[in-house]
Amino acid sequence: MSYILGVPRYANTAPLYHFLEEGEGLVFRYGVPTELNRWLLEGEVDLSLVSSYFYLKNADRLRPLPDFSVADLGPVYSVNLFHRKPWSELRHIALTTESATSVRLLHYLLERDGLEVRYTHEQGGLELLERYDGVLLIGDRALSTYVGLLSIVPESVHQIPVQPGGVFVSDLSMRWFTHTRLPFVFAVWATRSHEPPPAEVVRRLRVARSLGLGNLAAVAGTEAQRLNVPERLMQHYLWNFRYHLEAPDRLGLEAFASAVGLRYPNCFWEV
Ligand SMILES: C=C(O[C@@H]1C=C(C(=O)O)C=C[C@H]1O)C(=O)O
To answer: Class of the 79-180 domain?
Structure first.
């Protein structure tokens, strides 16, 4: 019987999967985070990336690997609210259907600022700004949309315009950082809590991650071509991530649990 790994189709997880091969008992099932979340609970996949918020909400049924995350400290560049009105004037926002974590993070950040906002789940891109004050996008689509607004790729991140193409880009992870000074964990890897991950599968995942991070230029080259974004920008995007769920990331995850009123279990597989 094969062991089924839930695999997202985002550039930000490519360093983890680029060098991972199917076979020898391992098969991949591809999906966006909201699909992977559901499949893991329903038993359609055995070990998967899950949105951190989904994990926290289902912590009695899921248990994460101790050292895998999609996290960052400060800007992430691909979890963006695009808006034309200033942040304080936002009233109606269109939400991506792909994400659990960033949707909850956005609610939290707006509530914290005392804003009452209506939300509608709707697929699309910047064209939604004709009908909404803001549109929340994540992953490849958020990154491509952001890059599409830049007329040049600046030499320094400090030269990125605040309002490229007349559109505000609010990076939710940066907002979280400004407020907490902590990393933000978007995703972890988990299994159902009564089904420990096979050590050999975890070993293969770790080897693949070492190869991916050790050969980041190659991974970035492939992803840059796939998404048609400049290679230099893709490299910066990828090396900015924190993939090991280290102590600061766990503090960030704990702070997020507390911010959204959930218990932080602090319980990981020993593998
Ligand atoms: C940072 C990102 O991380 C992703 C965001 C997720 C979420 O918001 O639920 C889930 C998985 C991550 O791969 C992104 O896609 O931009």
So the answer is: alpha beta
